[in-house]
Amino acid sequence: MTTDNRGELVLRVVPRLTEINSNGHIFGGWILSQMDIAGGIVAGRLARGAVATVAIDGMKFISPMLVGDVVAVYGREERRGRTSLGIRVDVVATRGVDQQEVDLTSGLFTFVALDEEHRPRVLPEG
Fold first, then answer.
1. CA-CA 20 to 30 A from 26: which of 11, 54, 83, 119?
2. CA-to-CA distance for 14 and 92, rounded, in angstroms?
3. Given a cut of 80, is residue 1 above it in pLDDT?
4. Which three-class secondary structure state does DSSP give residue 36?
């Protein structure tokens, strides 16, 4: 896995044509789902088990995602509580023949560690 100042590269995907909204851009809900998947991967590894998304804070769409963009989703731990983790998720597109990198969106996803009964559990030492 690659890391840089954005954190760990968790996913690299290309949206399908079925993900286009009425403006000709990629649907924001698709981007959000990719962010939740990536954040959950990072949180699950740090929690060493099951996690659930409980909040998304400070989500901002910076630039539209275009058909043909290659999307990279990065994640990193930003905060840690007793049972919860705040995972910063950043999305960057690689676009065009010149392979320009464009920041698309960012958000802070909060995940809670779950026990076998699907109740919050204390996180392992970090």
1. 54
2. 12
3. no
4. helix
Amino acid at site 70: V
CA 113 – CA 106 distance, rounded (Å): 22
Q: What SS3 class is residue 27?
A: coil
Residues with Cβ within 8 Å of residue 116, at least 6 apart in sequence: none
Query: How far, CA to CA in Å, does 6 sit from each of 2, 72, 76, 107, 110?
Result: 10, 11, 7, 12, 17
Q: What is the pTM of this model?
A: 0.90
Q: Domain 3-113 has what CATH class?
A: alpha beta
For residues 38 and 73, the answer to whether their CB atoms sit within 8 Å is yes
For the chain, the structural domain boundaries read 3-113
**pLDDT tens-digit profile of 65-87?**
888 899 999 999 999 999 999 99
> What are the b/e assignments for 36-75, b being 16+ CB within 10 Å?
bbbbbbbbbebbeebbebeeeeeeeeeebbbeebebbbbb
